[in-house]
Write a structure and sequence with these properties.
The chain is α+β, with helices and mostly antiparallel strands and 613 residues long. The chain has 16 helices and 28 strands.
Length: 613
């Protein structure tokens, strides 16, 4: 019964009152945009998709049309015509005139925007609808009139039609993009390549690349200087000072323009198509067609046109660019191996070159010191001299077991190495060191070196009171050491070392066979199969000692000497390394030829510049 009473009350309430008792005040009806004669500041947006001169007529026709249209409408006043030329409509990027127009709308300088069609305004549905809604929300609102489609965005119900047409415009862009990509694919597969303007070349009447000798001189100088050891910054400064002209007629050279020339295979006569591609036709952002983004087939034509530099020099330059870390290292590096003295058989580490592998280290040692392995084996069978205590079976206890906080220790990761303050003190806080590695015995050495050594590493800094060890970047060589040691790349490794020698002829020695892995503990519920159970707190690292340490306290007393016996070789801990031949399939221009070529080319350019002046 209660429900019936409630329903009756609702029916009574919604019967309302008599219509004559209600006074209705009519709203102001929206006027058709062409009937509204109120004053309006009108902005016109014009866009042509290419900057081809033939598009100029289309651009001017649109400009004239809208100037006349606005002049005929009572109350309409042309504020400004905003024009983007040679810009795609699928993104707002680089559409400077469009963004200027939107900014003027937000500053209340424009009441109405007129444009030819939805596709002129935007071919991206997200941008189109988003900008229209934003303009409609302004106080006062700004409407957009799309003339071809006869859509006015402040008119009720316009968004559905606009969304539909914007979707068609976006799909049309996608179709055009796919058709263009297919066209390129067909061209490339038939050996018909695009030949954009390139420094060092002109085009003949058939579109073929022919050498421009004056520009080619600049290209050769760039390659020769880079191979000789100049940085891209130094090359850019040199060309700017020589007043050499870029392909675009500029006299100011940049590092990016130099790098672009060095990496362009067309200078050695080859052509590679599809070096980059665009995954999204809306953003137009290109990516390199390699690695996980290798989604398009590459087309390569060797000797497509006459070369300016040799293919071997081009390959050498690409290696220098790809493998040098933290700056240039000069000519293509060679591995240097010490062939005499206490560090015989040690490879001198190049701290900025990532192009050497573990196999390269081992091969180089065998080349310079072919008996190195036999020497190591012979040293392992030491017999005590007559009259001395026979200590065979005894071990020298590892320093790690004593827990010395001030021990000379080094910590390695695949990217960084860090020395303790004790290491600095043992080498008298020398500013620069050189690293050496014995790939057979797995020994790492740090020895003092002088300024000017290309392999020098600055391993400390002074704060005004005392010296501190700095982190030493090692992305170029530490992965090789990790590979040789078969270490887990997720762990840092800590090794205690010792100082051998005296004064400037001393060095720090670290036996990497005695490395302790420093394991980061994880919570037990972490979804990681390699997680280590928590012991003593989730953030407390654990040192993992080598398996062999379970059955020993240290190394055998008569274990192989860490270094070559002084009585056999002489100490000479500063003995320089001997270069080994590069194992390359190409032969780049020699250092002497590069030097002579650079000198001759600069003289020629200087004389030419003086003559032009």
């Amino acid at each position: 019964m209660a429900n019936q009473d409630e329903k009756q009350r609702i029916r009574q309430r919604y019967r309302g009152v008599a219509l004559e008792e209600i006074e209705k005040v009519p709203a102001i009806e929206d006027k058709d945009i062409f009937e509204d004669e109120s004053d309006k500041q009108v902005g016109v947006y014009v866009r042509v998709s290419t900057d081809d001169p033939r598009q100029t007529s289309s651009f001017e026709l649109q400009r004239n049309h809208y100037t006349d249209l606005i002049a005929r409408r009572p109350g309409w006043h042309l504020y400004k015509i905003y024009a983007d030329e040679g810009i795609s409509g699928t993104s707002l990027n680089h559409r400077d005139a469009f963004m200027e127009m939107i900014a003027d709308c937000k500053r209340h300088k424009i009441d109405l925007i007129i444009t030819k069609s939805v596709s002129r305004f935007a071919r991206n549905i997200y941008d189109c609808i988003g900008q229209v809604r934003m303009l409609a929300d302004l106080k006062p609102p700004v409407g957009v009139l799309f003339e071809t489609e006869n859509i006015y965005t402040l008119k009720e119900g316009s968004e559905m039609a606009l969304s539909f047409i914007a979707t068609l415009a976006q799909e049309e862009s996608r179709t055009k993009s796919s058709a263009m990509n297919l066209s390129y694919e067909m061209r490339f597969s038939r050996g018909i390549f695009l030949t954009p303007e390139l420094l060092g070349y002109d085009k003949d009447e058939d579109g073929n690349l022919v050498i421009n000798e004056d520009e080619a001189l600049t290209v050769r100088l760039i390659f020769f200087m880079f191979l000789y050891g100049y940085t891209v910054q130094q090359i850019a400064e040199t060309l700017t000072n020589l007043k050499r002209v870029t392909k675009r007629g500029n006299y100011q050279w940049t590092t990016s323009s130099i790098l672009g020339i060095l990496q362009n295979e067309r200078h050695c006569g080859d052509v590679i198509a599809h070096k980059t591609w665009t995954p999204n036709f809306l953003t137009h952002r290109s990516v390199k067609n390699e690695g996980e983004n290798f989604k398009k087939p590459k087309y390569i034509k060797r000797d497509h046109h006459e070369s300016i530099i040799s293919r071997d020099d081009f390959i050498a330059v690409q290696q220098l660019i790809a493998f040098s870390d933290r700056g240039r290292t000069g000519m293509l590096p060679q591995i240097h191996v010490v062939d005499k003295g206490a560090l015989r058989g040690f490879v001198i580490i190049n701290p900025r070159w990532a192009g050497f592998s573990a196999e390269d280290y081992l091969t180089s040692v065998e080349y310079i010191t072919p008996t190195r392995k036999e020497e190591v084996i012979a040293d392992s069978t030491v017999t005590p001299e007559i009259g001395t205590v026979d200590l065979r079976g005894f071990e020298i206890v590892r320093g790690q077991f004593f827990g010395a906080n001030r021990a000379c220790t080094i910590t390695l990761t695949p990217e960084v190495m860090k020395f303790t303050a004790s290491c600095l003190q043992k080498l008298d806080n020398c500013r620069l060191i050189e690293l050496l590695f014995d790939p057979i015995r797995k020994l790492l050495v740090a020895r003092p070196t002088a300024k000017g050594n290309r392999n020098a590493i600055e391993w400390l800094y002074f704060d005004g009171k005392k010296y501190h060890a700095r982190k030493v970047l090692g992305r170029a060589y530490l992965p090789v050491i990790f590979d040789l040691m078969q270490w887990n790349t997720e762990w840092p490794y800590s090794i205690q070392g010792e100082c051998l020698g005296n004064g400037q002829d001393s060095f720090l020695l670290f036996d990497l066979n005695d490395a302790e892995g420093v394991i980061r503990q994880r919570k037990a519920d972490e979804a990681d199969a390699t997680a280590t159970p928590v012991v003593g707190g989730p953030k407390q690292p654990v040192k993992a000692m080598p398996q062999e340490w379970l059955s020993s306290f240290g190394t055998e007393y008569y274990a192989p000497a860490a270094i070559a016996p002084a009585e056999k070789t002489g100490w000479n801990a500063q003995s320089p390394g001997k270069p080994t031949p590069r194992n390359d399939s190409f032969t780049a221009t020699s250092e002497a030829e590069l030097k002579q070529g650079i000198t001759t080319m600069i003289e020629t350019m200087t004389e030419g510049s003086a003559g032009n002046g």
